[in-house]
Write a structure and sequence with these properties.
alpha+beta, Creatine Amidinohydrolase, Chain A, domain 1, Creatine Amidinohydrolase, 12 helices
């Protein structure tokens, strides 16, 4: 009796805290109407007599009893707005009839309210909160999924993403993501893998693990007005972060300090996270495309520093890169390489409009760079092929993923893409030694408009002149000085 009283009292206390905290949340999240409309758009695209099944993301363990902060699966977030784990969504092409005669075309199973758990890891919506806050009429605790009696064999297609076998089974919890997946596999007679046999053989080969991705890519690649508002904010925050870092950079700072300055700006503007692990590479470190150690303790006077950092705001990620001289002034060689990359980017901007093929974007950037490198004496054998000095693509979609879902045939109005040519010249490259260690990437985020494009990341300077001018300006961080650790000592007893 005492235990029940404590649990009940805890739940009452937590409910009151939740009510107070809800008033403190931002007011610009996507609305439940947005997510409902997205589900309907998916339903419209589903094949006849089919069902789409989507699972929430897994909780990832960092070490021992510490997990990484939960990040929802982007497709699940797009369709539901639900930010918690241990959930499954079913979207039906056609109306279904419940045992009580009610008709429905979607149903969601979510993690249940739990007073003790919520004291430790935060509030949960529960099924009633999902109904009121997210607009679902059919919402149930995850425990109900095992008792949900649906004959999956009646559908011509059951569309879902195949499983990666990287979901942990939480002991003593039969409603975690692992168990939801296992129950689903049993319901649909998921084919045996790795020599494991199923208790029941499949009665109908209606499982489709490849059809859902293209449908969602078609939806997510073209942004709505509501999504564009969040993306604009994410990009603006990111660009301002770059601009502020430019004013603060000076020889002697560490790569990690510069990372911290930018990420502080992101947080100052209330961005929840980085869109991807931040890249801050000085000198030859910039030649590592996804350099994330950011360990160099002191950047030097003659180096360039490549900064690929962006904010994630309400799930939507920007993707912005700038390359600047540590001492505030490009050397002649650095300037030549930088302006060649900028020339390629400007050439791509000119053709970014509805109807332009992604292949044309790639070819335009690559031909411009390879021609320029060849004129500078680099051993370029083909103007259209990737090579050591420019080994990556020029453009990708951004949105709920930094490499977002979207079609890669031709540009459409309200797509948001990156334009990111680059040149990387590692030490000991097959070229004149004067170029060694130079790495330049300029990456901007572009909205495709009705007749052209809009540069969203304009707040971060791009030209040599504008960068050098900005780096002369004082920084808000100039007077930010912390105590030296070796001088921080405890006072002896009796000292004031």
């Amino acid at each position: 009796m005492k235990t029940k009283f404590v649990v009940a009292a805890t739940l009452i206390l937590f409910n009151s805290l939740c009510s107070a905290q809800n008033a403190d949340l931002p007011s610009d999240f996507l609305s439940k109407e947005f997510h409902s409309e997205r589900r309907q758009k998916l339903r419209d695209k589903l094949p006849a007599n089919s069902i789409a099944v989507l699972f929430a993301n897994a909780v990832r363990n960092r070490a021992n009893d510490v997990d990484y902060f939960f990040h929802q699966d982007p497709d699940f977030l797009y369709l539901t707005g639900y930010k918690e784990p241990n959930s499954v969504l079913l979207v039906f092409k056609d109306l279904q009839t419940a045992n009580n005669g009610a008709q429905y075309n979607e149903i969601i199973f979510t993690q249940a309210r739990n007073a003790r758990a919520e004291m430790w890891t935060g509030r949960r919506l529960g099924k009633e909160g999902v109904k009121s806050s997210l607009g679902f009429e059919q919402a149930f605790d995850a425990a109900e999924f095992s008792r949900y009696n649906l004959n999956f064999s009646k559908f011509d297609q059951v569309l879902f993403f195949d499983f990666k076998n990287d979901v942990r089974d939480v002991p003593k919890d039969s409603t975690d993501l692992y168990d939801l997946i296992e129950k689903f596999k049993a319901k649909v007679n998921y084919p045996a893998k790795g020599g494991v046999t199923l208790a029941v053989e499949p009665t109908k080969n209606n499982l489709n693990t490849t059809g859902l991705g293209p449908l969602l890519a078609d939806l997510r690649g073209v942004k709505t007005k509501e999504e564009l508002e969040l993306l604009r904010k994410a990009v603006s925050i990111s660009a301002i972060g770059h601009a502020e870092a430019m004013k603060a950079i000076r020889p002697g700072l560490s790569e990690r300090e510069i990372q911290g300055l930018q990420e502080y700006v992101f947080k100052k503007y209330q961005a929840e996270d980085q869109g991807y692990p931040s890249i801050v590479g000085a000198g030859h470190n910039g030649c590592i495309l996804h350099y994330m150690e950011n360990y160099k303790p002191s950047i030097t006077n003659k180096e360039l520093i490549l900064m690929d950092l962006a904010a994630e705001y309400h799930g939507y990620s920007a993707d912005v890169t700038r390359t600047v001289p540590v001492n505030g002034k490009f050397s002649p060689e650095q300037k030549q390489i930088y302006e060649l990359v900028l020339k390629a980017q400007e050439a791509v901007f000119k053709i970014c409009k509805p109807g332009t093929a992604f292949k044309e974007i790639e070819n335009t950037a690559r031909i411009t760079i390879n021609k320029g490198l060849k004129e500078l004496g680099f051993p370029i054998t083909s103007e259209t092929e990737r090579n050591l000095f420019y080994p990556h693509g020029c453009s990708h979609h951004i949105g709920l993923d930094v490499h977002d879902r979207g079609k890669y045939d031709s540009l459409r109005q309200n797509m948001v893409i990156t334009v990111e040519p680059g040149i990387y010249i590692p030490e000991n490259s097959n070229c004149d030694k004067k170029w060694w260690g130079i790495s330049v990437r300029i990456e901007d985020d572009v909205l495709i408009t009705e007749k052209g494009n809009e540069l969203l990341s304009f707040a971060a300077p791009r030209t040599v002149k504008d960068i050098e001018e900005l780096m002369k300006q004082p920084s808000a961080f100039d007077n930010f000085v912390l105590p030296e650790l070796d001088k921080v000592k405890p006072k002896a007893k009796g000292e004031e």
